[in-house]
Specification:
Length: 79
């Protein structure tokens, strides 16, 4: 008695490459003027935040003459 051959389970997955839909998706709507303005303002806000953080953070990253000095409290001077 020979084993019965069956189709590969989930053979429909292989058929999806050949499937083409005859339904076209709706056309994308162009963004309105307020939407474009809002996106632009959000983008400018993000860029301004990054530039501002870079400007305020740069002095802290620079090694200058203040970094070479050690801080001493007034209590240590009286010893």
């Amino acid at each position: 008695m020979q084993p019965r051959r069956e189709a590969v389970p989930f053979a429909f997955v292989a058929e999806t490459d050949r499937f083409r839909s005859n339904v076209t998706p709706p056309a994308r709507q162009r963004p309105s003027l307020p939407e474009m303005a809002g996106r632009t303002l959000i983008g400018l806000t993000v860029v301004a935040g990054l530039v501002g953080s870079l400007l305020f953070g740069m002095p802290a990253l620079q090694a200058g003459p203040q970094a070479a000095q050690t801080q001493q409290s007034e209590a240590s001077e009286g010893r």
